[in-house]
């Protein structure tokens, strides 16, 4: 059965094979900083808005507890607010993934801006804070210089600043495309169970079904993040082993099984199934949606190079990728052949 065999953007098979081979040599994660939180985790740092030494914000109003916030509270910009700054420690000049977190607070700004001090100058990214509340959202992957650096959130009347994370989990390919592989929920201590499950310990084909009370799209993304870093292996159900070896339709099948949905093990069949709402524009995607790619550009989803992923918010997906050799978080701008999305009702 044809199943997603590659997450390369090129349609040329020969070029794809050469490029994939080069990635094996150059796209492995760079050496971790000595300031790692554990023997296996990459270096990371979380700065919360309550950290008086590392956070500053003039003209921002402190708000009380919110279930979607990180820590005890968060701040919201007033009409005369300046930029809210999060000071992060960069132990080594290299590539880092920058994450931002914000809760839903009613009237969140649709075009807040995040300023990232990179090795090549300041980068500004626009984020829609009306979406993806309560998630660690990837702002992007950037090369940052060693030292104390300030990541800023800007936007008057409605911008929200809660917490920022930097993690040395970035992967960089020779031609410049990037991805990341760590689960920020686990790094931040919000997913203590992590990948430990009956399936992970016993090697069962499917992960044990968990119980979610009133599951949300954010729960789907959190479940998908647990698979980040899992080795890629193309194949049928025999190769679909939760947290051990997965390809793209295996990943989406395992994720949605946790929410009472049994999906076929094929991108085309997941798209064609008579369930869920189909979405035909990137702007219509929401966290937790399935996203499909016609890499072969043949007008149908039945080629081994076609793929399916989980939308993770802010233009990125979580995908089991032969290009990176593992489940990774990838910006959609690196993936050609967008076909559409699908929003499944949760049980």
UniProtKB/TrEMBL annotation:
Keywords per UniProt: Hydrolase, Protease, Signal, Thiol protease
Gene3D superfamilies listed in its UniProt record: endopeptidase domain like (from Nostoc punctiforme)
Record region (Disordered): 177-212
Record Pfam families: Golvesin_C, NLPC_P60
Domain called NlpC/P60: residue spans: 214-347
Gene Ontology biological process terms in this record: proteolysis
MF (Gene Ontology): cysteine-type peptidase activity
InterPro entries the UniProt entry points to: CBD-like_Golvesin-Xly (IPR033803), NLP_P60_dom (IPR000064), Papain-like_cys_pep_sf (IPR038765), Peptidase_C40 (IPR051202)
Signal peptide annotation: 1-27
UniProt keyword annotation of Nucleotide-binding present: no
Family membership: Belongs to the peptidase C40 family.
Family annotation (PANTHER family): MUREIN DD-ENDOPEPTIDASE MEPH-RELATED
Descriptive protein name: NlpC/P60 domain-containing protein
Organism: Rubrobacter tropicus
């Amino acid at each position: 059965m044809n199943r997603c065999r590659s997450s390369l953007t090129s349609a040329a098979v020969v070029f794809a094979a050469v490029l994939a081979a080069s990635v094996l040599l150059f796209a492995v994660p760079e050496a971790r900083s000595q300031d790692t939180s554990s023997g296996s985790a990459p270096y990371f740092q979380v700065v919360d808005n309550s950290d008086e030494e590392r956070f500053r914000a003039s003209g921002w109003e402190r708000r009380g507890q919110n279930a979607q916030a990180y820590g005890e509270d968060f701040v919201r910009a007033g009409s005369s607010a300046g930029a809210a700054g999060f000071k992060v420690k960069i132990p080594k000049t290299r590539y880092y993934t920058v994450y931002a977190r914000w809760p839903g607070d009613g009237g969140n700004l649709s075009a807040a801006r995040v300023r990232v001090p990179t090795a090549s100058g300041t980068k500004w990214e626009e984020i829609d804070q009306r979406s993806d509340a309560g998630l660690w959202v990837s702002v992007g992957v950037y090369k940052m210089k060693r030292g104390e650096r300030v990541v800023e959130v800007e936007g008057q009347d409605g911008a929200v600043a809660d917490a920022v994370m930097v993690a040395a989990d970035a992967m960089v390919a020779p031609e410049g495309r990037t991805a990341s592989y760590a689960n920020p929920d686990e790094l931040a201590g919000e997913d203590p169970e992590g990948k430990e499950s009956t399936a992970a310990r016993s090697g069962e084909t499917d992960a044990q079904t968990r119980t979610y009370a009133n599951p949300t799209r954010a729960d789907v993304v959190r479940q998908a993040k647990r698979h980040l870093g899992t080795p890629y292996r193309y194949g049928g159900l025999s190769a679909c082993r939760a947290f051990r070896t997965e390809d793209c339709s295996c990943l989406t099948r395992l994720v949605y099984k946790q929410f009472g949905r049994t999906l076929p093990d094929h991108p085309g069949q997941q798209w064609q199934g008579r369930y869920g709402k189909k979405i035909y524009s990137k702007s219509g995607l929401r966290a937790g949606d399935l996203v499909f790619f016609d890499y072969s550009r043949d007008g149908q989803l039945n080629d081994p190079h076609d793929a399916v992923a989980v939308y993770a918010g802010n233009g990125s997906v979580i995908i089991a990728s032969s290009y990176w050799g593992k489940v990774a978080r990838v910006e959609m701008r690196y993936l050609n052949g967008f076909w559409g999305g699908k929003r499944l009702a949760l049980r």
